[in-house]
Amino acid sequence: MREKRDYDDIPGTYVFDGQASRQGYHLNMFCMSLNKGENRDVFRQDEAAYLDKYPMTDAQREAVLTRDWLGMLRLGGNIYYTFKLAIFDGMTMQHAGAAMSGNNMTFEDFRDMMLVGGRGIDGNRSKQEWAEYYSKPENRAHAPGEVASQGDASTIRTEQSENKDDSNG
């Protein structure tokens, strides 16, 4: 486990640092392989078999096969490399950005948000701020992944609980 970094407390942020680079190496090399047309053709024929060439973790492999874009970032994927897979699927950067938002944002919502300057900072400064906000009963129904009938604050699933050290060790 690596030491904590200041940026670990920024919600929705997956910094591609040395640890992420090591963790996602094979995932990213797979994505880079899609630069070659012949590799895209082989991948298109049998995705699972093509992935056998890359010793990814089971979670990384599943993220690729299910196109869990945010999951790939959490598992060490570099956005520039994973975008090569998005391009393979015919996605634009705006489509990929919406898919990586983690909140079921549509392409149109993402585009509109970016046209007005991006996501506002209110409620997005720290995971601690999120935890405090979602610990209030009146805000629980709005928690990411929250089921309104769940009880106390310990059951609220936030980005903070999802983004514990995602490393494999």
Task: Please provide a written account of the structure.
There is one protein chain. The chain has 169 residues and is mainly alpha-helical. Helix content is 49%, strand content 0%. It is built from eleven helices and no strands. It has helices at residues 18-23, 25-33, 37-45, 47-51, 58-66, 69-74, 79-88, 93-99, 107-115, 127-134, 159-162. The longest helix is centred in the middle third of the chain and has 10 residues, at 79-88. Residues 146-169 have low confidence and may be disordered.
Structure described in brief:
This protein is mainly α.
Portion in beta strands? under 5%
Ends apart, CA distance between termini: 6 Å
Rg from Cα: 17 Å
Mean pLDDT: 77
Please identify the structural class as seen in this structure: mainly alpha
Oligomer: single chain
Query: What's the tally of helices?
Result: 11
The coarse overall form would be: globular
Order of H and E elements: HHHHHHHHHHH
Main attributes of the structure:
globular, 11 helices, mainly alpha, disordered C terminus
